[in-house]
Design a protein that fits this description.
The complex is a heterodimer of chains A (about 525) and B (about 325).
Chain A (H helix, E strand, L loop, with lengths): L4 H26 L9 H34 L5 H7 L2 H4 L2 H12 L4 H8 L10 H25 L3 H9 L4 H29 L3 H7 L7 H10 L4 H25 L21 H32 L6 H32 L6 H10 L2 H12 L9 H38 L4 H12 L1 H17 L4 H4 L7 H9 L4 H27 L5
Helix pairs in contact in A: 1-12, 1-14, 1-15, 1-16, 2-7, 2-9, 2-13, 5-13, 7-9, 7-10, 9-12, 9-17, 11-12, 12-15, 13-22, 14-17, 14-19, 14-21, 15-17, 17-18, 17-19, 19-22, 21-22
Chain B lengths: L1 H19 L2 E6 L1 H4 L5 H12 L2 E6 L3 H11 L7 E6 H9 L3 E2 L18 E14 L8 H6 L4 E4 L5 H14 L3 H8 L3 E5 L2 H9 L5 E5 L2 H9 L4 E4 L5 E11 L5 H11 L2 H4 L9 E2 L20 E2 L3 H20 L1
Parallel strand pairs in B: 1-2, 1-3, 6-7, 6-8, 10-12
Antiparallel strand pairs in B: 3-10, 4-10, 5-8, 5-9, 5-10, 5-11
Classes of the chains: A mainly alpha (about 525), B alpha/beta (about 325).
Chain lengths: ~525, ~325
Amino acid sequence: MARRAVPLGAFATAIGLGALTLGPLAVVMMQAGGGGGITAADLAALRFTVTQAALSALASVACAVPVARALARRRFPGRRLAIAALGAPFLLPVIVAVLGLLAIFGRSGLINRGLEALGLPEVSIYGMGGVVLAHVFLNMPLATRMILQGWQAVPGERLRLAESLGFGPGAIFRHIEAPMLRDVLPGALLAVFAICLTSFAVVLVLGGGPGATTVELAIYQAVRFEFDLPKAATLAVMQVLACGAAVLLAGLFTVPSGFGAGLDRAVALPRPAGWRRLLDAAAIALALGFIAAPLLAVGFRGLPGLMALPSAVWPALAASLTVAVLAAPLAVGAALLLALALAVARGWRGLEPVAMLPMAGSSLVLGTGLFLLVFPFVSPARVALPVTVLVTAVMALPFAFRILLPEVRVLMADYGRLADALALRGWARLRWLILPRLRRPLGFALGLTGAMAVGDLGVIALFAAEKGATLPLVVQRLMGAYRTEAAAGAALLLVAAAFALFWICDWWGRHGSDT
Amino acid sequence: MKSPMFAAGFLAVASVAQAETPVLNVLTYDSFVSEWGPGPAIEKAFEAECGCDVVFTAAGDGAALLARVQLEGAKTDADVVLGLDTNLTAAARATGLFAAHGQTPDLALPLAWTDADFLPYDWGWFAFVHNKTLTAPTSFKALAESDLKIVIQDPRSSTPGLGLLMWVKAAYGDEAPAIWAALADNIVTVTPGWSEAYGLFLEGEADLVLSYTTSPAYHLIAEEDDSKTAAVFEEGNYLQVEVMGKLAASDQSDLADRFMAFVLSDAAQEILPTTNWMYPAKLPTAGLPKGFETLVQPGKSLLLGADEAEAARAGALEEWRAALSR
């Protein structure tokens, strides 16, 4: 890794990423076909998609801030477990998460049964409220973790200084926490927005009807029933543009605070007593309750099925883990390269939207495009594993990138000049500066992308061979064959595997750090 | 010097042996090839008599299958496509990729079969499935007037959803938008596929779910649970006929013919009812499995012809969307 290696590597990565996301789109667009135009219904779908994604992002992040703050400044038994558990909802296969939520909030869920017992009218989860609720369930924990990283990265010296200046909680918020949030929140909002933008099954199942039609569904319809590939590609471009606008918007608000580095002395955030303590306790209790209840429901639904899992589950689990173990380091490595280049070199801002591209892409269009690229040369089933690993890594890269970028920026602002002065370059720089100091976010990013890879259905459906199905595909096949109980059991196994992978990487990242 | 010679000889023999085993590629949907689906048993039975290797490739559901055929086009390796339904056959035929089947089996469908390109292998009536404790409505109008909650599938992403759209169209024609508008307050939600809808129903989110009259047979036979039944509608229940077709470009044309004939033989037809949970297209000599006699039998069967269904789809979809988006 010579001095120019990072920018060069990042440049190559960015080109590869652009080619992998936009290439299939172009292939799909160029396929001869009907070429239907965009209808009023498609525009309504775009409007609805952006609205629900924006509301979901705002709600998720608004809920995440007090929870992250409470977790950052309070210590209690089980805190580490609670932080780790925040990874879980994000890893659930979507339909499993939805069924878990319905067990609590659905028509015959716990809440409505409670209301019924009290003689109160039932509340319906179906509609925009339900869509946002589900997205908050799935993404608030992710946002909490991203924001918590921000709090954990505040140098102890700043807190000491604040203490010696006699800052109260209000002043600490204004001078230390608010600038940190300003740095971290746009990225968190952007990540959740992009996830919700391409959310498909959640919106459709909980949306309550065709009023809740997303662009992704319109793409589905165009590919499957109308075989109008140019239209599907046009819709996918609309989706990319919406996400691109969000990236630009977030970029306008992101200003690195750049206070200077600390010496890594562990100084806990002040823990104000009184009503603030109660407020923090309430935030943590509410968040954990909100997350735990549907998760427990998933667990209870899955337990009976665990006893009688079909044999197809085990090779599928192995296939899923193989994909995860190969894809996660690929995604995190590429994301680190891009983040380093962005933090080091000025005038590289173009890298940021490129790194976010895969999030906005439609996985159906991506899969279709890759299929069209591969099919003339080799049977898609034969390249199922490499294609799945590559696509999974590409899809997970933006998440790793968003986690790493703020920390890489701080690292470079704080230590870049020192490292330059010491002529700490190349592998030495990576080994002595970057890897040790980024261990926590790297572990988190590895865990998250690995777990996502286990749980991702993604494009595998188009490439799956007779054998070699992944676990999410098996869950889907079981559900499609009336085997609800076995499906719930397999889903529980999937969650356990994803969570174990996440926990191991996350533990590695936190190991030796003070939090 | 001996071993390379041996290796060369061995390879030559091996490649001859390989060439002697023809491969039949069958493109089908996911649930057909899973270990609990009909695929593995049919593959084993056919391979035992054909001296060939059957390779199934799975592609989502019926609609995904059609998209896959169109994606692969004339370059496809597939010899047989199995798993389209009559709402998709017109579009499939329009690709020009399929060849006439040339077979005249003695089919046991509720109506006469005349399609020259596609052969049915199983079928079922769409119906709203519910618990026996419920007094079910006997028509769409009665359903619309009740406060019963239903969950249905989206016709833009699933074949049962498309089936329901055609059902209402076949039963009510120009009146269909009014029926959808009246049904709007009964619909809890619209799911992307069959499995989500059925899962929601089993979780108690709805009183009825769009499925098949044969769905209760799964619960009865596989789970010994006789609590489910299906509603027969006065308008008639719409049929789903699942079909297979031979690709014109197949390099195993004779084998493909033999395979399609085999799927309609007793050996395969006996497998279908308790793996695909549909009625066999040709009644096996042994009759239906025990438990199927308990299923409700609609008095009237509805089905739009392939061309009719294709012609009606876009308009019916727009009516559906407009009526339910309000």
